[in-house]
Design a protein that fits this description.
Largest sheet: 18 strands, mixed
Number of helices: 6
Order of helices and strands: EEHEEEHEEEEHEEHHEEEHEEEE
Helix content: 10-25%
Shape: globular
Number of strands: 18
Length: about 290
């Protein structure tokens, strides 16, 4: 088989063009690592996923994720988007409202709520842990990376939740949205601490969302992420650990991506067990076949 079903999506979006793009290749059996990496490099999207039959009991399907440069063990928007495609293709049916994704990060459930254009999907993200709480006064690389981001109340923290991010609260939304990142400094920090970069956030008031977020990726390439489910999940875990969830609620909404021409909305929830669910709406934009 060389021709396979192929879909491009907008994830964490209520309309095309607002969220984070994703490519999904169905019927991926027969593609080796080199072919999957080549396809991901060719799509030039943040991630491309490949869907396989499940191999573990209880799994709905298996997935592999690739950025244009390497395989990715876990990411939020590819998990949510792939579940949307699997449902539309009739490859799996939720059990008690849940799908189960099999991948490098293990078996991860995804909650499916609603139907059609109102449907939302959320992935239970890997448990996050605080690697260190940073002090810019004594951490030169961190100080340089957040110099353009006037600090809020919480200290910066390095948190690992499948992907490792530095989390930095900014004093207010307007300052966050107007900030110009120091890409050299962020890249140096990311490489030195084996992290993705800096996820900066600000609490908001009087908006239809509770947090504004910007995710500055420093490695392996420097760019601003339009909407990051994994970064926001690590942030939710950090805020929970500091008893600082917006409004003290276990669920809230994030705005991300405006500064790079998008307008994503992510829905975060921390359940009674302390697990973080990251999700939102998904829109199919392109449906067809890929001949590789």
């Amino acid at each position: 088989m060389t021709s396979r079903r192929y879909v491009q999506l907008d994830v964490f979006a209520d309309r095309p063009g607002a969220g984070n793009p994703l490519a999904v290749v169905l019927d991926a059996e027969g593609l080796d690592d080199a072919a999957m990496q080549a396809i991901a490099r060719w799509t030039r999207l943040p991630e491309t996923t490949f869907v396989f039959p499940a191999t573990q009991p209880g799994a709905s399907y298996a997935i592999r994720m690739f950025s244009p440069r390497r395989e990715v063990p876990f990411a939020g928007h590819p998990s949510v988007g792939t579940a949307h495609v699997v449902l539309d293709a009739g490859l799996a049916t939720p059990r008690d409202g849940l799908l189960v994704q099999e991948g490098i990060a293990g078996l991860l459930p995804l909650r499916v709520e609603g139907d059609g254009a109102t449907r939302t999907i959320a992935v239970r993200t890997p448990r996050a842990r605080v690697v260190e709480t940073g002090n810019p006064a004594t951490h030169a690389l961190l100080r340089a990376a957040v110099a353009a981001l006037p600090a809020g109340n919480l200290p910066p923290a390095l948190v690992d939740g499948g992907r490792r991010w530095w989390l930095a609260e900014v004093s207010d939304e307007a300052t966050l949205r107007g900030a110009s990142p120091d890409w050299d400094a962020i890249t140096a920090l990311a490489r030195e601490t084996d992290s993705m970069g800096v996820c900066a956030y600000a609490f908001t008031a009087g908006q239809p969302y509770d947090l504004a977020v910007r995710a500055f990726v420093g490695a392996p390439a420097a760019f601003e992420d339009a909407a990051s489910g994994a970064a926001n999940a690590t942030l939710a875990a950090w805020l929970k650990s500091r008893d600082a969830l917006p409004g003290g609620r276990d669920h809230y909404t994030v705005s991300q991506g405006r500064e790079v021409g998008h307008d994503a909305r992510l829905q975060l929830r921390v359940d009674a067990e302390g697990d973080v669910w990251s999700g939102g709406h998904v829109r199919t934009v392109v449906s067809g076949r890929i001949d590789w």
